[in-house]
Design goal:
5-stranded antiparallel β-sheet, HIT family, subunit A, binds zinc ion, 3 helices, alpha+beta, globular, 28% helix, binds adenosine monophosphate, 18% strand
């Protein structure tokens, strides 16, 4: 889909991203306005708008990839827990209409409200964190 920002990111052309994982089915990269440091998006390479458009057979693969990426994010960030979420539809807070799963590192003592407060990476930190996650597969 030519107008879709995530399709453009997956195509690795005009919109850059900080890659965490890639295979034939999914592309994973750091959210650039993260709820917590290491917040990662797992995106099916095929353009589907949301959960309801993804064929069941592909959902199985996506679920397994989310687990694999979440494990690496958890290990790399030494997170105490992980939130996995998916916004489906504008009313549910979906802003980018290419299906994606949020993987959000959580810590025992963090103060957190997903969707409201976002963090900012310092210069170079995104590259550093993504590299740490890539080494944790
Ligand atoms: P959602 O509200 O579930 O549609 O989430 C879309 C997410 O994509 C938000 O958390 C944004 O911060 C993130 N996002 C949007 N554009 C980019 C981008 N160019 N690079 C990385 N993350 C992005
Ligand atoms: Zn797309």
């Amino acid at each position: 889909m030519t107008s879709c920002i995530f399709c453009k990111i997956i195509a690795k052309g005009e919109i850059p991203s900080t890659e965490v994982y890639e295979d034939d089915n999914v592309y994973a990269f750091l959210d650039n306005s993260p709820s917590s440091i290491g917040h990662t998006l797992v995106v099916p390479k095929k353009h589907y708008e949301n959960l309801f458009d993804i064929p069941d057979a592909e959902l199985g693969i996506l679920g397994a990839r989310v687990k694999k990426v979440a494990r690496a994010v958890k290990d790399a960030l030494k997170a105490d827990g992980i939130n996995i979420s998916m916004n489906n539809g504008r009313a549910a807070g979906q802003v980018v209409f290419h299906a994606h799963i949020h993987i959000i590192p959580r810590f025992n003592d963090d103060i957190f409200s997903h969707g409201k407060e976002r963090k900012q990476y310092r210069d170079g930190e995104m590259v550093e964190i993504a590299s740490k996650i890539r080494k944790s597969f």
